[in-house]
Amino acid sequence: MLKQISVITALLCTVFIFEYCSKKNTDAIASQSYPAITAAFGNNIDPNNFANYAAQPKPNYIVKDNTGANPITNGKATIGRVLFYDKSLSIDNTIACASCHKQTFAFGDTAIQSKGVSGGLTGRHSMRLVNARFANEAKFFWNERAATLEVQTTQPIQDHAEMGFSGQTGRQNLNDLLNKLKGIGYYQELFTAVYGDVNVTEARLQECLSQFIRSIQSFDAKYDAGRALVNNDNQNFPNFSASENAGKNLFNTPPTFDATGNRIAGGLGCGGCHAAPEFDIDPNTRNNGIIGIINATGIDINNTRSPSLRDLLRNGVPNTPMMHTGVFTTVQQVIGHYGNITIAPGNTNLDPRLRPNGVGQKLNVTATEVNNVIAFMNTLSGNNVYTDVKWGNPFK
């Protein structure tokens, strides 16, 4: 009997010790704190429960993806979000990536040239960043000088006029920025939580910033609701008006030209360079006839990239000026440009699709066609990209 009591007592003690230790472990996990992150961001960032960047749904008809060897993770994209909005990444703590790429404007800028440090300005109009992950073109910047998004992300930081860590005229360089970030408490905590150490490197900045940018997606437009109801883009969308369907057909259908470059049949052929359903740019595209340089003479014929046409408009109004020079402020102006292409002297890089039979195309677009195309363009804009807090400023 005594032996049985001893066994029972031992078992009860074991259970008690297990439950006590389990409770202590649970309490330890529950009490895990990040004081610097809390002080900087309040409830906007929770390292114990990062926002969902990695498992966002996308339509099954979206098949392009330039993620490559840097798949999105919640932790690294969160660091990317902080870096994107942090003015500490500029030489004088006045400019962040988000200063030129504003969520309110689909991550573009309403200024033709965005402001940099010490009165500097960007050389080209700031490109919208929506759906950068789903671009068939993996190169970045208007002139595609960055082979990948990863390479692109730290170049503005090192640009003398933009964010200033250029190492020029006595200024600090990127290594100085990395040391600066290592000394900031919330980066110490974030990098430790995600990477296991506080080592801030250029490769990690590129990894995190590009993951955050690729996470910015927009698939809640009227177009997406309609595309889900049909087998392909050539069918009329049941949720579209007659004008929207007509505009879609004009957008997607290539034109037929006579020997003098005049359209005699077909549509406007916009989809030849901005193919549905991603509406990104064809990697083989050459320049589109806009060859100016902002506030300078001469020509620049090497700008061959563009952002996705998704969320170009919001409530019928362009989010930002268009083209690398910001020369157009309305879609009507853009259609007018493509409707009557003039081959400028020295432009040896004009896209062949714009010069049928070696002459500039003349689409002879009617007012009804213009209205229909604009109606269709409006269906490419959603709402969530402007309001989702996981893409918003964590410092607010």
Automatic annotation (TrEMBL):
Please state every residue range assigned to the domain named Cytochrome c. 75-185, 242-381
Keyword Iron applies? yes
Q: Name one Pfam family in it.
A: CCP_MauG
**Principal cellular location given in the protein's record:** other
Q: Does the keyword Transmembrane apply?
A: no
Q: Where in the cell is it found?
A: Cell envelope
Q: Which UniProt key words apply to this protein? A: Heme, Iron, Metal-binding, Oxidoreductase, Peroxidase, Signal
InterPro entries linked: Cyt_c-like_dom, Cyt_c-like_dom_sf, Cytochrome_c_Peroxidase/MauG, Di-haem_cyt_c_peroxidsae
Molecular function (GO) terms listed? peroxidase activity
Q: What name does the UniProt record give this protein?
A: Cytochrome-c peroxidase
Species this chain originates from: Ferruginibacter yonginensis
